[in-house]
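User: I'm putting together a small comparison set for a docking exercise, and I want a reference complex before I start. The sequence is below, and the ligand is magnesium ion. Could you produce the 3D structure with the ligand included, as structure tokens?
Assistant: Of course. I'll restate your input first, then give the structure tokens for the complex.
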Amino acid sequence: MTLITIDRVSRFFNDPKRKSAVKALDDISLKVGRNEFLCLLGPSGCGKSTLLNMIAGFDKPTSGTVSVGGQLVSAPGSDRGFVFQQPTLMPWLTIWENVAFHLTMRGMDKRESRDKAQRFIDMVRLTGFENHFPSELSGGMNQRVGIARALLMNPEVILMDEPFGALDEQTRMEMHGELVRIWRESQSTIVFVTHGIDESLALGTHVAVMSARPGRIRELIEVDLPRPRDPTGPQFNDYKRHILSLLRPEETLGVAA
Ligand SMILES: Nc1ncnc2c1ncn2[C@@H]1O[C@H](COP(=O)(O)OP(=O)(O)O)[C@@H](O)[C@H]1O
Ligand SMILES: [Mg+2]
């Protein structure tokens, strides 16, 4: 069943210095089914964040439409949780207060929001750190707090913009395993932005490969690999080779430009 429909979306940005318009996205159409894990993969500047921001309702298409659950997206909503590249936590709040932030904002009483937060603190395996402050936790742990905060509102979709980009390789791989577990346990739908081919193949049920500016979908690939995925296996490498062949001509153009 389709949950997200992106229909013929283009996005221009004004470039006042050059008195022209930058075409960031060009006629993108894409469907994401419920419970899918879609990775948006492409080189830096191809419009991945722009597209994700439009699903979130942070930005609007110049033309075309985005809908989630049959509703046209016009603003952010609690049906869509967002995990940023940096965890954007409030340093003066404890871990549980950060996780429960949206509930407190809505006026839920402390005890109830504390109880509600606990389930998601447990889910991201931060039990025991409820009363710590963000500065006392590692980067990977803070990113887990960001995920718990997004999950708390029980969103239909979790939107993630290069959430593990700042982590070291080993922590990133650990987070991949955790995220796949969380995705299954929470039965959510995820749209995950990355420029890493390995990362997209470690995570996605689908990978949408985008081309460099103006961003277009080159191919939507269904990843039929057993989990946990073996990045050294022959099938994994077959997918990788295929994705590289899709990205390469664009990379060459990018260097020349
Ligand atoms: N607010 C903005 N104003 C002007 N140009 C923008 C804005 N946001 C993005 N762009 C341009 O749109 C293109 C795509 O950006 P972005 O979506 O951030 O790419 P990605 O996330 O794939 O790296 C880039 O050329 C970028 O400079
Ligand atoms: Mg980006």
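The mean pLDDT is 93. The longest strand covers residues 2-15.
User: Thanks, that's exactly what I needed.
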